[in-house]
Amino acid sequence: MKKLTALIFFLFLTNTLYAQNTKDLWWKRNNLRVIQMNLPSYEAATINADSIVADLITYSANTLLINAGGIMAFYPTKLDFHYTNPFMKENVLGDVIKKCHQNNIKVIVRFDFSRVHESIYKAHPEWCYISPKGERIINTDMYVVSINAPYVQEKAFKIIEEVIDMFPIDGIFLNMPGYQVNNPYEGKYHGIDQNEFDKKAFAAYSNGKVLPAEENKADSLYQKYLAFKKHTVEDWSERLHKLVKSKNEQIAICTYSDKFVDIIRHESQSMTTLPYWPYTASDNVSNAVNSFPDHIISNASIQQISFQSRYNAVEPQEAQIRLYENIANGSGLDLSMMGDMRAYEDERNYGVIKKVYDFHKQHEQYFGKYKSLAKIAIIAPGAWPNGEPMQEYRGVQLMLREAHIPFDIIEDGQIGNLAEKVKGYKLVILPEITYLKPEAIQVLKDASKAGTHLIATNRTMFDNPATLQELFGAKIEKKDNDGAGNYLVPDNRNIFKSFPGQKMLFWKFNLGLYDLSGTDQKLLPILSKGRPGPPEIIGGHEPTGYYALGIKNHEKSKALIFPVSLGRIYYMHGYQEHKNLLLDAISYVLPNAKEDIQTNAPERIEVILKEFTKNNVSNREQTKSDGLIMHLINLTGFSGNTYFAPLPVYNLDFKIKSQKIPTKIFSLSTGQPIKFTYANAAINLKISRLDGFDGIVMEY
């Protein structure tokens, strides 16, 4: 009986501890201050645990991300298929982890299973990528592997298990997971992997189909291949999750995807083409936190200019904007640099890093537990937008950011998983969202029926004519049409109120020709290109019978379609007339959209308003709001192609909607109280001076 009682007590205690450990997972507090030291092989010979920890403490970091294995082992591996870094000092990784833990610093170790050393390739060439032309992807003496071959499918798990068994790590970070078809370090595309293991795995998945050799979205075989890739990546991730959590629930899994992951990592990288995008961190974090609300997000500010210029850091003011935007949107801080911090080749950002990381440490109770107040959602074309859809998406964002209109971002692929969240918005904007899953389409239809307005631009839903007709009353006659030389007429001045003195608005880029007979209003008549030539003969811009805006009335909502590249033209050229087309349309469907935040702040002051709950250990279960926090990020130093120090801005007035009266308002940057008044469900306050950043706390 005593043995049975003891067993029951043991099981109870074990289950209780497990529940507590699950609840107290260290990363869940969302107060990460990560510094990643991406070590070149040769730096393993000189790194020192004491200096690394001293630097982490100096810069207020609470998490280190450092190399462990994959491409090469930074520890004494016993596995013959794991190439050992020839510069490795035997005990250094263990010493780093031990001394970090002595100073309450977590350690996430980095794995990269995208490549193997030449010696491994020569022993097992069947493990590696081969292109449709028979090419390998090679970087010096490193060969890209095939995800379905034994190295990734079997050996990678043994490497991870070895590290977990040897060291008390706090997390693992997977760099470059998934299928590799590009050589990003040289900017070259090689094609779909034709490795024999990939062929066999695809045949088994597809009931005997042959692996495609070309990427063609219109090809049903390629669509099957995309589903196969998703399946294999998720299967591998699930197996990894089971392995890691069987070892220790407190080990966080971090990578760029969301399935079977604890921390979703994103990256703010330097731009290689103009125009530069100063909102990269706000874009990344808002997208991730709203698309994956059950995950912790860590957006890394990548120090390097490019893969070819790794030892040159981005400008200090660019790094500062990224880090403050991380905080403002609900991420912790994350910085990725080459090597450790001693004798670094470009230390210009060190002052910014120290300032912002210390600021986060001092005020972390006001960061990380946010609730959005936005009534508008912008749909993102994926987690890593590119090409014209990216330009359209960024242009629409830019319009709202400059107008200080709050909005959330939701990834297009996640709409179907967030039905109730989507229904909660007053307006959803779809900037050239060219493909949506059937379940996402249904969510938008249900939201429209419930009262959510929709605005779509350019080629949105071109692949779904039935839905385009049902929701927007539009039929495509010519989806792609060069609009250079055409004009739009802002005809209805009850809607288009921002065009005094303007009768015609120039156009370029795409100008879709749509049959809008299914709409209730056709606006913005399109004028023909007219006569090119010298001043003496120009003119002739006549109505074409087409329109650049259609409005369809639903029972409780409206659906507006601009079949033109409205966002792209503003992103690339920045003429206010194009921004005002969208802002006037928003005011038409949401007359109070600009009333949540009313301010005289310049357009280059980014204003991010959140509801916050204090992020203390003692109230980790609390969900009740403690007040509002308004983040102000000064981008006045951004000139379009470089970053200077921001200009101080004076006498900023704010009127902020609030159903509660604050008990106090103060500045995080100065610690000083801010005088305010409250009337008509709004807080009125003035900020005498704004430098680079401030957080205005309005406690209830």
UniProtKB/TrEMBL annotation:
The keyword Phosphoprotein is assigned to this record: no
Cleaved signal peptide residues: 1-19
InterPro entries per record: Class_I_gatase-like, GH, GHL6
Keywords for the protein's UniProt record, in alphabetical order: Signal
Gene3D superfamilies noted in UniProt: 3.40.50.880, Glycosidases
SUPFAM superfamilies: (Trans)glycosidases (SSF51445), Class I glutamine amidotransferase-like (SSF52317)
Record's protein name: Family 10 glycosylhydrolase
Species this chain originates from: Dyadobacter chenhuakuii
